[in-house]
Amino acid sequence: MRTYSFIPALMLALVPGTVLAQAAPPPAPADSPAAATAPLAAQPETPPAPEPDSTATRHAPSVQVTTPMSAQISASMSGQLEKFPFRDGDHFHKGDVLAAFRCGQQKATLAHAHAEYIKRRGLLDVQNKMKALGQWSVSDLRSAAADEQAASADLEMASAVVAQCVIEAPFDGRVSNTMVHNYQYLSAGTPMLEILDDISLELSMIVSSMELRHLQPGTPFRVHILETDATYPATVSRVSGKVDPVSKTIKVYGKLTQAAPDLLPGMTGEARFGQ
């Protein structure tokens, strides 16, 4: 009978693994002296977060440069333009002639009305002298007075018509658009040009209504304009009288505290408060 020796060999193969398993020391518990004496990596100290500054973290609202005075000048009468000297971009002063019409007929009517008034005024003076001499008639005096008043009214009407022949600038400013040309025939009410005040500029912005506690007339701020890439000092000039209940916003207006001839209405930028 054969004797097999594979069992001792199998046992010898398992012995080293068993010995190794017994030789490996168990991990030290967390509260053991070895764990207590192990050095810990130094942790960097985190500085305390600074207190938020409500002024510094305030949103910078968009700003638009506007003008407080602008107007579209239309033809005051029907007729042909005789003088139209200004073009888009030109500056003008208050009282300058922006447009003038050919008014030969209207001026002739004015001259006739003036002559008629002088005539009626003279007849009334005669009646008053006759009254002083006691040689007068009540009906003649009243008729002369009525004729004088009618002639005066006609003179005023003719003067008003001639006054419409010339359109003068109502303020100092600049032409922003022209729609007609010299010698063109226009109907009354036809738009001719647009003008604006480019000196007294204003800043317009829409801010959250929660900012009203910080923004009052006189509050200083700085405005950065994109087109010029420059920053200008300004102050809040006025606040709108109504809050939009849907968006919870309100319009705020400002004015520049220094002259800025390089700014034009329509330029945009952002307002910076607390800087």
From TrEMBL:
Domain of life where this protein originates: Bacteria
Keywords noted in UniProt: Signal
Signal as UniProt keyword: yes
Region span, Disordered: 24-69
Biased composition annotated in UniProt, kind: Low complexity: 31-44
InterPro entries: RND_pump_MFP
Membrane-spanning ranges: none
GO terms under cellular component: efflux pump complex
Leader sequence residues: 1-21
GO molecular function annotation: efflux transmembrane transporter activity
Key word Transmembrane present: no
Family: Belongs to the membrane fusion protein (MFP) (TC 8.A.1) family.
Protein known as: Efflux RND transporter periplasmic adaptor subunit
Organism: Komagataeibacter nataicola
